Amino acid sequence: MIQKQWFWTLPVVLMITGALAAVGVAQNVAKEKEFRIERSMPKEAIACIECHKREHPGLFADWAHSRHASANITCYDCHKAEAFDPDVSQEHYKQYQRSDQPYGTTEYKIPVAAVVTPKDCSRCHPDEAKQYSLSKHANTMEIIWKIDPWLNKGMNSDVERATGCYHCHGTVLKMKDGTLDPETWPNVGVGRINLDGSKGGCTSCHTRHMFSVMEARKPEACGQCHLGPDHPQIEIYMESKHGDIYTAHGDDYNWTAAPGTWSPGVDFRGPTCASCHMSGAGTTLTTHDVTERLSWEIQAPLTIRPSDFKPFPAKTNWQTERDKMKVVCTQCHGKTWVDNHYVKLDKVVAEYNDVYFKPAKAMLNQLYDNGLLDKTKFFDERLEVEYYELWHHEGRRARMGTAMMAPDYAWWHGFYECKKRYNNYMEEARDLIKHNKKAYQATDYPNATGNTSKPKEVFPTDP
Questions:
Q1: What is the pLDDT of residue 40?
Q2: I need a surface site. Which of 98, 145, 278, 428 has the fewest CB within 10 A?
Q3: In a domain, 217, yes or no
């Protein structure tokens, strides 16, 4: 009986399996996302939408799901340009010489720029653009060319810069043969120098073409650049209690709350990078100037107040900015908790400055004065690297770990590593002085071929 029943049911099983397979195949068939133009748009904007819908479906889908699309903001509104603008795409004009689609005619021809800049965004977001222009983000090209030995000493190649440094800091955009120079584009660095004179790229955080507020509020947006051995803010954040709460409860946060309404304790339980450094809370207003709310310049070799940071002095008062940050903190913490946190941070700053950095800098100066190290280049002698990493790697991690309440970074990745670096550095330095011996200088230092000329677009008066 069992065998007989098996033979009778086998065709049925096969029929069901076949039906399910057919359903699966049907489900995997690509479906076109429908977007009906139901609002008043100029014909040029309709041409943009219809063309990109076919040519770049991913780009179109991003835009179609955006708040911009809901508000009738189209490609034309952001990319439109004047024919005489330096960043007009000459290549794009060829799109109006096509016969394979109805919008490829001169009737729809308009000048467009591929790069959408903060100046373009300021047509609708003037406050955000103004605040951003004042920040260290927007002005980072000026900052790094004033302080960075990799650039000023030409210690890395232009290719290494383009794929590394400039990816986050930004390039100086240039045109070549009517299109964007591949050595400078694509790039969405926060300090990019645009052809219209503006600085930065809003799409560093609000990525194309959805330009999502939700995306920019998440710590991963900042973690694109703020990571690694020299400024591991994303790793520090994820280790902290704040990051732990985000990991546990982040799926329940109201990421899409309207700008200016995202409230601690209501829309989210634990803060992110954006909610501390940019979003409004209590009496502290929202800002796109991340230089605000900082009371120490803890990324600098010697920790100083932001207004004393010579490469780019902040036009702020550190006490005022600390009070703003305290208002943000006290949305979730008591006054004593917040005040004592800053007492601890100030003590760490003092110890780092006095115990580690100042003696190391004094020793470096002595080695240069004694002719035991050569100033011509940097990084080609081991003690220069040791000194650099003492403040640029371990020293930053110790200070940033403390500021963001991540004990493993404050100690094991920070001060513990500072001690080892400092001791090795001092041992070798004293040995050179004792024997009046010049340090070994790398004669075949690789790829030290970078251009050392400061960009005229940033330093127009420099010789």
A1: 81
A2: 98
A3: no
